[in-house]
Design goal:
About 50% of the residues lie in helices and about 10% in strands. With about 325 residues, it is an alpha/beta fold.
């Protein structure tokens, strides 16, 4: 039986856990990045391996009326030198965006800045990026990684946010703690990107069923929208997007008070539909050579994506229309 067919037979939850666990395998990453087979599929989710390759994609999104946040791919660096190199790549990216009159809005992972090596070294690195962003009146968002990083990420976010308000953070609806985290970030007038959560977390800390995660997402989204703290509603789920629209219409929340966010290459039809209806939509645009773990999480989110290795990458957009709330 072909590999694709074997994979299709796995329960979705098992498949998701398998793909997430494979995302940590450095030996597989080395094989994948060299393989010409993966390149066309990866290109669907990643705007290029270099800044020069990514810039035209960012410009094309801007011309189409979409906003962007740029992620210089990388996570869990193993040394201070690697963390410093990641900072340099961010500084070059921020300068290039600003010089070209593109949105100086970036997203980064704290383990890329050395969080697992040394907290104070990470904070120093992060502050170099924050200062660069502040210098061009831009914005930086700290992505959220697995639950063992949540406390440290929020702590670094608090320190950076006190220095410059244009620093946001991500909250994952999958985590049971997120309700309390949302309340404390709202109290600090912080800016939250709300997502479902891309990691395979244990039941002790996370909701494990889709319905429980979605219900928590809906609750947190309503709280953030009503609190008027410029939230980013990051999802491709048409039901949650329809729910967001019904909340903002009911509460009379202006379209400049929040934004939808989606990933590069995912549900491009929905990105445009929302933009055409007058909503602000920001696309998360990753680039860089360290694409393997990011790419594996994208496969895990929609295990059917694995089958695109044997098909056309065009099958990635499933045209589910916007549902009623
Ligand atoms: P859901 O998984 O239910 O998907 C809804 C529909 O969207 C699917 O039916 C499918 O049509 C489409 N879809 C979703 N993912 C797809 C994919 N990979 N390929 C093809 N179609 C897909 N997570 C995290 O833990 N920390 C973070 O910092 C971030 N940051 C972040 C930024 C932005 C802008 C977005 C949009 C998402 C994140 N995420 C994240 C990822 C997030 O947690 C989640 O894993 C994905 O967004 C998928 O969940 P949805 O909300 O789209 O719903």
């Amino acid at each position: 039986m072909a590999l694709n067919e074997n994979l299709r037979l796995l329960p979705q939850r098992t498949m998701r856990s398998l793909l997430i666990s494979l995302s940590h395998r450095r030996s597989l990453a080395r094989v994948a990045v060299r393989s010409p087979l993966t390149r066309p599929i990866v290109a669907r989710f990643v705007a290029g391996e270099t800044l020069q390759e990514a810039l035209p994609a960012i410009l094309a999104l801007k011309r189409a009326g979409l906003h962007t946040t740029v992620d210089v791919l990388g996570e869990s660096v193993g040394s201070r030198d690697q963390a410093a190199a990641a900072v340099d790549r961010y500084l070059a990216t921020i300068a290039a965006l600003s010089e070209r009159d593109l949105d100086p809005n970036v997203s980064l992972k704290l383990t890329q800045m050395g969080l697992e090596i040394d907290r104070s070294c990470c904070l120093e690195n992060v502050m170099r990026v924050v200062e660069a962003v502040r210098g061009v009146s831009g914005f930086v968002r700290f992505d959220m990684e697995n639950h063992t990083m949540t406390d440290a990420t929020l702590e670094v976010w608090r320190a950076a946010h006190e220095v410059y308000p244009g620093v946001g953070v991500v909250i994952q609806a999958a985590l049971r703690r997120s309700s309390a985290d949302v309340d404390s970030i709202i109290a600090a007038h912080g800016r939250v990107r709300l997502c479902k959560g891309a990691y395979d977390e244990p039941a002790s800390v996370a909701y494990r069923t889709r319905s429980a995660v979605d219900a928590n997402y809906a609750r947190l989204m309503e709280r953030l929208l009503v609190a008027d703290v410029q939230p980013a509603i990051a999802t491709h789920d048409p039901r949650l997007i329809a729910k967001a629209i019904s909340i903002v219409e009911r509460e009379g929340i202006g379209r400049d008070r929040f934004e939808f966010q989606m990933l590069y290459g995912v549900r491009r039809d929905l990105q445009r539909t929302l933009m055409d209806r007058g909503y602000q939509v920001r696309i998360y645009v990753p680039y860089g050579t360290e694409w393997y773990p990011y790419f594996m999480r994208r496969l895990a989110e929609r295990p059917a994506n694995v089958t695109i290795f044997g098909e056309s990458a065009g099958s990635l957009d499933v045209h589910v229309p916007l549902a009623s709330p």
